[in-house]
Automatic annotation (TrEMBL):
Domain Enolpyruvate transferase: 8-408
Name of the protein in question: UDP-N-acetylglucosamine 1-carboxyvinyltransferase
Pathway entry: Cell wall biogenesis; peptidoglycan biosynthesis
Function (record text): Cell wall formation. Adds enolpyruvyl to UDP-N-acetylglucosamine.
Protein keywords: Cell cycle, Cell division, Cell shape, Cell wall biogenesis/degradation, Cytoplasm, Peptidoglycan synthesis, Pyruvate, Transferase
Organism whose genome encodes this protein: Psychrilyobacter piezotolerans
Membership in a protein family: Belongs to the EPSP synthase family. MurA subfamily.
Length: 422
């Protein structure tokens, strides 16, 4: 038996959806607690499967983790008792590889299983490893594990070939306690990187250039554990804003930070949607029947986020005319397409481009979530489709959306968590 959502589409949804803490900020920040001994307190941590997996990994390394509130954790670091992050935990989630930089910073020694690829792409880690080498570590890869060691970490000048989010995070965390100054160029500028840097800076790390493509990190001897609250999830916010467009703007989104959503909002506006922000409350104005097709290309931030591509496709599938989405970050991130087509969409993949011809409506079907954002895209299609849709393999969705069915029920959705035979 496997978890699924049973969704009866067609209900008129309205109300306010609240965004939780950002998964993609919480995960690196949790790994950063490995760097320094002491008691770390984190708030606004979303209740997600990925968070549970990472806490287990931290425990396996010798840290103690305790949930001290609905979205708060106490992480006690009395020193690492194990310097090996095992395949069983790392394979469940790519972000597990982010323990490597912190372990190096803490113990100058780390053995971490290679994460391998996943449904959306091959997801290599060569840039992470080059960065560690640039800080003086030696790297050995044997039997599916990466072992990194250093007598001491020393500041270096590292220029990334590509602004990789994970590599930027891992290298920053390794560098904050390295001896001397590290200059990191062509780094990723995703808001989650700023959140990680702000967290490290709150602990006493010296990082200049936060929010830019060049970071200068002056190593410090010691950090001081602090209490920190994770930023809101801009991908969850974007997902719910797409849902709002699908329901003619009847849904407001609380916890949407305008500066995090620039190119996404620009695309909505190009389609004819008006987006207003009152603080962190986003309101959508526009009717589905008036929307125009658009051409989208995913890109590193501040470009259009790959993590919003699948959800946006659900919207474009119902917009008259022909839209296009080019995916440039991951080689296999159109897994939602055959499933959306099973629900009546007219989408054709030509290499890295999806050509989307708008249809009038979706029809209900049994469909399968292949990955996290594809799952969200299918749930939204199901909420629009007449009849009953079953979305299976929702464990993917649980990796990244906190209590999605409860949030959707509150705005009038007929969605229920069930078990089905697979
Ligand atoms: C730039 C980008 O949009 N990154 C996304 C990526 O981050 P994530 O950190 O997972 O991925 P990266 O940003 O590292 O990868 C971006 C690209 O760089 C390549 N690469 C990466 C590391 C490496 O060592 N070698 C290498 O070649 C990858 O194959 C990929 O094509 O997935 C996350 C989850 O979906 C998103 O939140 C991030 O926004
Ligand atoms: C694919 C995602 O996450 P991860 O990098 O953890 O696989 C995502 O957040 O959309």
């Amino acid at each position: 038996m496997i978890g699924a959502f049973k969704i009866k589409g067609g209900n008129a949804l309205s109300g306010t959806l609240e965004v939780s803490g950002a998964k993609n900020a919480a995960l690196p920040i949790i790994t950063a607690t490995i760097i320094e001994k002491g008691t770390h307190i984190l708030h606004n941590v979303p209740n997600l499967r990925d968070i549970g997996t990472l806490m287990k990994l931290l425990e396996s390394l010798g840290l103690k983790t305790e949930k001290i509130g609905r979205n708060s954790y106490k992480i006690i670091n009395d020193g690492l008792t194990n310097l090996e992050a095992e395949y069983d935990l790392v394979k469940k989630m790519r972000a597990s590889f982010l323990v490597m930089g912190p372990m190096l910073a803490h113990a100058k020694n780390a053995k971490v299983s290679l994460p391998g690829g996943c449904a959306i792409g091959s997801r290599p880690v060569d840039l992470h490893l080059k960065g560690f080498e640039g800080l003086g570590a030696t790297i050995e890869i044997t039997h599916g594990y990466v072992e990194a060691k250093a007598e001491k970490l020393v500041g270096g000048h590292i220029v990334l070939d590509f602004p990789s989010v994970g590599a930027t995070e891992n290298i920053i965390m390794a560098a904050v306690k390295a001896e001397g100054t590290t200059i990191l160029e062509n780094v990723a500028r995703e808001p989650e990187i700023d959140d990680l840097c702000n967290y490290l800076a709150a602990m006493g790390a010296k990082i200049e250039g936060i929010g830019t493509g060049k970071l200068t990190i002056v190593g410090v001897e010691k950090l001081t554990p602090v209490e920190y609250s994770i930023m809101p999830d801009r991908i969850e916010a974007g997902t719910y804003m797409v849902l709002s467009v699908l329901f003619d703007g009847k849904i407001k989104v609380k916890g949407a930070i305008q500066e995090h959503l620039g190119s996404f909002v620009a695309k909505l506006e190009e389609m004819g949607v008006k987006v207003k922000f009152d603080g962190d409350l986003a309101t959508i104005e526009g009717k589905m029947e008036d929307l125009k097709p658009v051409i989208i290309k995913t890109a590193p931030h501040p470009g259009f986020a790959t993590d919003l591509q699948a959800q946006f496709m659900t919207l474009l599938a119902l917009v008259p005319g022909t839209s296009e989405i080019k995916e440039t970050i991951f080689e296999n991130r159109f897994m939602q397409v055959p499933e959306l087509n099973r629900m009546g969409a007219n989408i054709h993949i030509d290499s890295h481009v999806s050509i989307i011809k708008g249809v009038e409506e979706f029809s209900s079907a049994e469909v399968m979530a292949s990955d996290l954002r594809a799952g969200a895209a299918l749930i939204m299609a199901a909420l629009k489709a007449k009849g009953e849709t079953i979305v299976t393999r929702i464990y993917h969705v649980d990796r990244g959306y906190e209590e999605i069915e409860k949030k959707l029920q509150k705005i009038g959705a007929d969605i229920e968590r069930i078990k089905v035979e697979m």
